[in-house]
Design a protein that fits this description.
By secondary structure, this protein is an all-alpha fold. The chain has one domain. Helix 2 packs antiparallel against helix 3, helix 2 packs parallel to helix 5 and helix 3 packs antiparallel against helix 5. The longest helix is centred in the N-terminal third of the chain and has 39 residues.
């Protein structure tokens, strides 16, 4: 092999190595899409197993309720406190309610709720399914003619899409209650002005936008958790790595998709239309 051939081979290897992460990333997205499509294809088919859906809703929704309410209350409180001090220098502290409500409804409530679901339910699902995978329980389901995607993945995906909007709405409500107490009770903002400006700034479409985002976020974080658990390997260490990836990937995907969803919704629903 002469020097020209060696140099050409080195260039090809370098190009291949440079594009390997991109190929793996695309392949990973494709695997998630395939898992989602496989799960949704079982939605209208029997057996329905409603108990699995109720159990998944309880785990994702009720199990995450406490932490969502706690984070929501303090998020609304700190947003209101900062808004009051920022607007006070312009004698406009009564606008704290409207700005806090707008921020909670459109961005903070869906994003932070999804992050809480990812940290709790997404990690728990990845651990549970990963343990079932390495202990061959998923293989046992297949040997009993039970489709593991229908039995394990589909109920959790549906529950994630149903529970995330509910938790987001509760996050918003408790956040606004916290914001009211901080602004009106704690900082002396006029009650009537607080309510009036909240009604002027916050529109029903803002809440609807947040609910739309939360459906997508709930699907994404639960899908990632299911994928990481369903494809775990390597014993206990593999389960731990899958759980870590579920939380990290879920959180990153929520923040990335938030930008694209915001851009799309702002194009479809301009601010002046709300």
């Amino acid at each position: 092999m002469n020097m020209a051939e060696s140099a050409g081979r080195a260039v090809l290897i370098g190009v291949r190595d440079a594009f390997t992460p991109i190929v793996r990333f695309i392949d990973l997205i494709g695997d998630h899409v395939i898992l989602f499509a496989r799960a949704m294809s079982w939605l209208p088919r029997r057996p329905l197993r409603p108990g699995n859906y109720l159990e998944a809703c309880e785990y994702i929704g009720f199990g995450s309720l406490t932490i969502v309410l706690l984070v929501g209350a303090f998020t609304g409180m700190v947003m209101s406190l900062q808004s009051v001090y920022a607007f006070r220098q312009f004698q406009l502290e009564s606008f704290a309610g409207g700005t806090t409500g707008k921020a909670l409804a459109v961005e903070l409530a869906p994003v932070l709720t999804a992050l809480m679901i990812s940290g709790r339910a997404g990690a728990g699902i990845a651990t549970e399914l990963g343990t079932m995978r390495i202990s061959e329980q998923i293989d046992a389901l297949e040997s009993m003619a039970v489709n593991p995607v229908q039995y394990l993945v589909l109920p959790r995906l549906i529950a994630g899409m149903l529970m995330a909007p509910i938790l987001t709405l509760l996050f918003f409500v408790i956040g606004m209650i916290g914001a009211y107490f901080v602004a009106v009770v704690g900082e002396g903002v006029d009650h009537g002005q607080f309510i009036l400006h909240t009604r002027d700034i916050l529109r029903p479409m803002d809440i609807i936008q947040g609910e739309i985002k939360s459906v997508v976020f709930g699907l994404l974080v639960i899908l990632i958790g299911c994928y990481q658990g369903f494809n775990a390997h390597g014993g206990g260490r593999g389960v731990g790595l899958g759980t870590t990836r579920a939380v990290v990937f879920g959180s990153v995907v929520v923040l990335m998709s938030d930008y694209f969803l915001s851009n799309i919704l702002l194009q479809l629903i301009p601010p002046e239309a709300t």
